[in-house]
Amino acid sequence: MATLITGASSGLGEGFARALAAEGHDLILTARRSDRLESLATELRAAHGVAVHVLPADLADPAAPARLVSNIAAAGLSVDTLINNAGFGARGSFAEMAIEGQLGQIDVNCRALVALSHALLPGMIARGTGAILNIASTAAFQPGPWMAVYYASKAFVLSFSEALHEEVAANGIRVTALCPGPTRTEFAQVADMGDSELFKRLASDPAAVIRDGLSALKANQAVKISGWMNTIMADSLRFTPRVLARRIAGALQKARG
Ligand SMILES: NC(=O)c1ccc[n+]([C@@H]2O[C@H](COP(=O)([O-])OP(=O)(O)OC[C@H]3O[C@@H](n4cnc5c(N)ncnc54)[C@H](OP(=O)(O)O)[C@@H]3O)[C@@H](O)[C@H]2O)c1
């Protein structure tokens, strides 16, 4: 049995791989940057004596999840834990940004996550045990002008994960949506959100987010917001008029960079 981690070449995904290898789990790592995956795999095998398989994939390709699952089966591996972590954001004017990147966020953040969950759940259900950790975001709790598709994609991940949590609980499968706030990874750089001092100071340490995600998954918590400040902010949105919430989110995104 192995844990499949998408987006394991940097940031949170790399951190999940390190944490789970240290607990003795065998791993399957995927992302596009195979050189990074290979060097992480070499390091983790040597440090923890676990089996680490590298299966690179571009999850923006709609055919990639099925190909990845068939490569996993061809290697004789079974997945008991799936960490749907791969994702990216693009900041800017929706009308002005290229459509490829907008649709790419839906393909990687949503489509691949759904496809991998759907392909791997039957095996988990047959075995009566399994777990899926989906990385959403505090962006899931309100619309985000100037990062419209990203915020919407994370609202999808949150809603889908909560629904799946209910559907498969009776089968012995745990499903958790982890909602980090700003976190010090390569995310902000990829999203063109600027590398401001403010971001660096306010952003969470990835290690804390990873601990929160893994302990929430162990406890089968449906939704885990990482960090007390993010929890207060997300909870306060329940009492904030939607128009205000989206305008504040939009002003914050516009001011970045
Ligand atoms: N950091 C934050 O502030 C923050 C906050 C809330 C939620 N999140 C979420 O946390 C998750 C992890 O992001 P991170 O913060 O660790 O950012 P990161 O350091 O940029 O890592 C993103 C990972 O996703 C992979 N990825 C991106 N596009 C891909 C594609 N087309 N095919 C396959 N893999 C792809 C990247 O690998 P390759 O480039 O090698 O393909 C990389 O391993 C994402 O879902 C993100 O939305 C992050």
Plain-language structure description:
The chain is of the alpha/beta class and 257 residues long. It has a single domain, classed as Rossmann fold (3-Layer(aba) Sandwich), CATH 3.40.50. It is 52% helix and 13% strand. It is built from ten helices and seven strands. Strands 3-2-1-4-5-6-7 form a seven-stranded parallel β-sheet, with helices on both faces. α4 (99-127) links the parallel β4 (79-84) and β5 (130-135). The chain is globular, with a radius of gyration of 18 Å. The model has no long low-confidence stretch (mean pLDDT 96). Bound molecules: NADP nicotinamide-adenine-dinucleotide phosphate. NADP nicotinamide-adenine-dinucleotide phosphate is lined by residues 7-13, 31-33, 57-60, 85-88, 108, 135, 137, 180, 182-183, 185-187, 190.
Q: Name the bound molecules.
A: NADP nicotinamide-adenine-dinucleotide phosphate
Instruction: Report the total helices.
Output: 10
The overall pLDDT, averaged over residues, is: 96
Q: Give the overall shape.
A: globular
Largest sheet: 7 strands, parallel
Please report which band the strand proportion falls in: under 5%, 5-15%, 15-25%, 25-35%, 35-45% or over 45%: 5-15%
Task: Tell me the number of structural domains.
Answer: 1
Q: How far is the N terminus from the C terminus?
A: 43 Å
- Order of strands, main sheet, comes to 3-2-1-4-5-6-7
Helix amount: 40-55%
Give the C-level CATH assignment. Answer: Alpha Beta
How many beta-strand elements?
A: 7
Low-confidence stretches: none
Q: Based on the structure given, which CATH architecture is correct?
A: 3-Layer(aba) Sandwich
